[in-house]
Amino acid sequence: MEERYSKAETLALRRKHIGPSCKVFFAKDPLKIVRAQGQYMFDDKGEKYLDCINNVAHVGHSHPHVIKAATKQMELLNTNSRFLHDNLVQYAQRLTATLPEKLSVCYFVNSGSEANDLALRLARQYHGHQDVITLENAYHGHVTSLIDISPYKFNQLGKDSKKEFVHVAPSPDIYRGKYREDHPDPASAYAEEVKKIIEEAQKNGRKIAAFIAESMQSCGGQVIPPVGYFQKVAEYVHAAGGLFIADEVQVGFGRVGKHFWAFQLQGEDFVPDIVTMGKPIGNGHPMSCVVTTREIAESFGASGMEYFNTFGGNPVSCAIGLAVLEVIEKEDLQGNATRVGNYLLELLAEQKEKHPLVGDIRGVGLFVGVDLVKDQQKRTPATAEALHLIYKLKEHHILLSADGPHRNILKFKPPMCFTMEDAKHVVETIDALLTEMEEATGMKTENNVSTNAQCKRKTTEGSSQPEGANESIGHMNGAACRQENGLYSKKPSLSSKRIRT
Amino acid sequence: RLARQYTKHEDVIVLDHAYHGHLTSLIDISPYKFRNLEGQKEWVHVAPVPDTYRGLYREDHEDSVTAYANEVKNIIEQAHKRGRKIAAFFVESLPSVGGQIIPPAGYFQKVAEHVRKAGGIFIADEIQVGFGRVGKHFWAFQLQGEDFVPDIVTMGKPIGNGHPIACVATTEEIAEAFASTGVEYFNTFGGNPVSCAIGLAVLDVIEKEHLQAHATEVGNFLMQLLKEQKIKHPIIGDVRGSGLFIGVDLIKDQAQRTPATEAAEHLITRLKEEYILLSTDGPGRNVLKFKPPMCFNMEDAKFVVDTIDKLLTGNIGQNSSCEWSEDQASSEMLLTSS
C-alpha cells in the first residue's frame, strides 16, 4: 500500500499541526494504522492486530454492506433535514422500533457530545429545572456543558471544578465502590444515595432537571450497575420533577447481547425518559441520536425556537444507520455477542482463579472488564501492571486498552464480529503475560500447570455444545488451540526486570 | 474552551443577532437564540452589529469602523469596572443570521487591538463563509485586510461538502496552553481518515475547478444584476456581498428602512413555485440570502434575477397582504439560519 509519508514523517507532521491535547495510544511507540477489516487492524508494515478496543466499528471495520449503502447515497444526495427524505423517517422508524414504545421521537445529531448536550437541554426545558445528578467517574462528552457533568474530566482540572448545579452520586460499582458484592441490597443502597442528594439539593432551594448515567460506565471502569438501581433512582428523580437520561453512546446496539440497549439489563419495567446513542451507530461515520418521549419533545418545541442541526439526519448518515441495523440483524451479532461474551467471561474467570493480579472479571455480552489488583483483599489497583500488560499485548499484536479512575481495568469492547478463537487467543496471551509479570515480581501464580496441558484438558473435555445455549462455552477445536500455543513457546523475557510504569 | 484556558478569563463579547451553534454553551453566546430562550448570561456582552446599512452607524458616518470598534472598547471598560475579564471576542466573519452583513474593513483590527489589550483573544467563526466563498480570499476574515489575523478560526459546513466535519485552527501558543492542563482532548469521530480524505478532496476540487475565481466572477455579475434591480424596485433597500455570499435587503420604505418581512416571505414562496430555492434571514427576516454551491454559474445568476424581477414587478410588496395566507405565516418559523 502506497503511503504518502513514513511513520516518522507522519508523527512529525502530527506534532506540528494537531493539537498536543490530542493523544495517541501507546505514546512511547505509537501505531500507524492504515487499513482495517472486521476485527483486525493493519499497520504501515502490514502487521495484523486483533482489535479489542473499537466498539465504534460495531459491525466490523470497513463492512462492505455499510460502505455500499454510504457510497450509493452519497452519489444521490447529501443534504440537510429541512427537506423531506425517506431515509430519515425510515431510520427513525427502525431505530425507535428497537426501543420501548414511549421512546418514539428522534433528534439526529453527529456526535455523542452533541447528543448528551441536547439531552440536557431537553431535560432542562421540560420543567425549567437546572440541576443535574451525575455519577462518580462519569464521562459524557467534551463540550463545555458535558465537562461540567463529567467527574472523569472535571476532577482532573482541579478540586474546585465541580459546578454548584452538579451533584455527584457514588458509582454503583459493587466491586470497588461504596457498597460491594457482600452488601444485601446494593441497588437500593446506591439509589438511596441519589435520594439523599435530591433531598439535600431541595433543602438548598435547588431543582433537579435530570439524573444522567451511562447505562454501563466505560471510562469509569466497565461498571455494571446492579439490577433495580435505575428503577429506584428514576422513582426518586421523577418525584423531584426530574428526568432520567440513559447515555448509551458507548454501549448500545446489541453489545450486551441479551438486549439491544444496555439499560434493558435493569429490567423490563425500566424505561428512561431520554436515551442518547452514538459511537457504534454508524460504524464509524459521524452520527448520533437522542430519543425521547412525545411529551418531552413537545415541551421542547413549545418555546417556538427551532432546533436545527446542519448535518444531523442527512440522507447519507441515515442510509449508513439503516445498513448497520441490517447487518446487526442479518449476522446475528447480538447472538454472537452473547455466545462469545459468555465464553470470554468463562475463560477470564479461570484466569482469575489462577492469577492474583486479577481482582475481578465483569461484563455482559462483548462489554467486559478485567480489574487488575496488587492485593486481592484491599483491591489496590494495579495501574502500572495494567499499562505494562497493554504494551506487551501490543507486542503480541493484540490491541486492548485500560481505563477506570486508576487506569487498571482492561476493557474489552471489540467489534461485534469478534470470535471464539479471538477470545481464546487473547486470554491465552494474557495468561502467559500475567504469569510472566507475576514471576518477575514474585507473586504466586495459582495452579502453575503449563498452559499447554491446560489447553489439552479443554479439548478432551469440551465436546461440541450447541452454540445457542446461553451459558455454555463454545467448542474450541484442538487444532486452533495448538496453533495459538505458538505464542508462548517463547521463554518469558522479563526474568528479574522490574515492572516500570 | 481554548480561549478560556489560554486567557484564564471567562467573559465573551459577541455581536447582536449572532448565531454560533445549538449547544448549551453556544446558545449562551448567540443572541439570535438566547433572546428567545434563557436570556443573557452575566458573562456575555453584546456589541452592536457593524451593519452600515441598518445598524447604529451607517454609510453616511465618517468613520463607522472606529465608531463600531469603540462600542466594543466601551463594553470592555464597563466589564472591567464590574471586575469582569474578557476571554474572547467571538464573531462570524460575515454575520449570516444577522442579515448577510459585511463588516467594514478595519473593524476587526481595531476590535482585536482592544480585546488583546484586555487579555482576551479574537475568535473568527468561518463556519458559514470559509473555503473561498468570498472569492478574493480563502477566508472571509481576510477581507478585513492582510494585517488582520485572528487567534482562533472555526470552520465547518462547507468543509466536507456535506459530510459531518468541522475544525478549529489556532496558534501553537494557545494549543499548548490548552494541553498544559494535562487533560486529554479526545473526539471519537474527529480527524478520522474518511473525513480527512473527504476534506482533502474538497480542497482539490476548489483548486482544480478554480471555484474561488469563479465565485468572484459570478458573484460580481450577480451583484451587478441585483444592483440594477435595486434601481428599478424600491422594495430593494440594499444589495451587499462578496463572491457568492450576497444579501438583498428588502424594505417597506426608504427613509426608515423598515424590513419588508411579509414581502420577503412571499417572494421566497413564489420563487419556490418557479423552482428556485432561496431563503431569508436577518432579525427582520427580510434579507434574501444567496450562498449557493460554488459551481453556481452566470446563467443561474441571470435566471434568478430575471425571476425576482418578474415577481417584484408583479406586485409583491404592493399587495402582499392579499396573497398572504395563514400557512405561510406559520412556516415562517422554519426559514431561518442554515
State the shape of chain A.
globular
Largest sheet of chain B: 6 strands, mixed
Envelope shape of chain B: globular
Mean pLDDT score of chain B: 93
Please count the beta strands of chain A (DSSP E, at least 2 residues each): 16
Cα distance, first to last residue of chain A?
A: 35 Å
Rg over CA atoms of chain A: 23 Å
Strand content of chain A: 5-15%
Helix/sheet category of chain A:
alpha/beta
Share of residues in helices of chain B? 25-40%
Indicate the structural class of chain B.
Answer: alpha/beta
Cofactor (chain A): pyridoxal 5'-phosphate
EC number (chain A): 4.2.3.2
Keywords (chain A): Lyase, Mitochondrion, Pyridoxal phosphate
Enzyme class (chain A): lyase
Can you characterise this structure?
Chain A: One of its GO terms (cellular component) is mitochondrion. Chain A: Residues 443-474 are annotated as: Disordered. Chain A: It is found in: Mitochondrion. The complex is a heterodimer of chains A (501) and B (338). With 501 residues, chain A is an alpha/beta fold. In chain A, 38% of the residues lie in helices and 15% in strands. The model of chain B is unreliable at 319-338 (pLDDT under 50). The longest helix of chain B is centred in the middle third of the chain and has 22 residues, at 211-232. Chain B has twelve helices and ten strands. Chain B has helices at 2-7, 24-27, 31-34, 64-81, 107-117, 172-179, 193-208, 211-232, 261-273, 298-313, 320-323, 326-331; strands at 11-15, 44-47, 86-92, 121-125, 152-155, 167-170, 236-242, 245-250, 279-281, 287-290. At the A-B interface, helix 4 and helix 5 of A face helix 2 and helix 6 of B.
Could you write a compact summary of the structure shown?
The complex is a heterodimer of chains A (501) and B (338). Chain A is of the alpha/beta class and 501 residues long.
